[in-house]
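User: Sequence in, structure out. Go.
Assistant: Echoing your sequence, followed by the structure tokens.
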Amino acid sequence: MTHSPAITFRIRPFQADDAEAFAEAVRDSVHSLSEWLHWPHAHYAADDARAWFAACDQARQAGTADEYGIFEQGSGRLLGGAGIHAIDRQHRCAALAFWIRRTHQWRGIATQAAFQLSREAFSTHALRRLELVVGEHNIASRRVAEKLAARFEGMAANRLCIQGRQQAAAIYSLTPQESSFSP
């Protein structure tokens, strides 16, 4: 596999005018994403994206999630999404998730974005644990967890239901003390 030059990006909340770009990125990446995520489909439309953005806004206001778009610096092209979700303030933990559009996968974007969000989770949200729940055979996402120095805690049988199929998931945890990624 050849590596492309590093891409500079910024992470920000989705805005209404991102809907067309989001839908296009999902449709472009549906084959690589739908193997690991339940929501992508070939006819994903801007209305689907706007509904997702509205859900993101509600979750942010409720304090249960922070979801972001990953945008290429300069061009503004949508490269993917990442978020901290299932925020549990009592236990100070949450889940960390990400996806990268097909044309930009394997360039380190997911690792860098996940690291940035983990720093935010530990500082801004004062969380003490992040979990990454990754399909057993999702090598790319498992590699991101390993690069973040997340601790592999084991395999959970039937943990995910993707496209109607139950599958095992690798469970990783990340704490402020263990996080040591450096680009």
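User: And one key feature?
Assistant: Residues 46-62 form the longest helix (17 residues).
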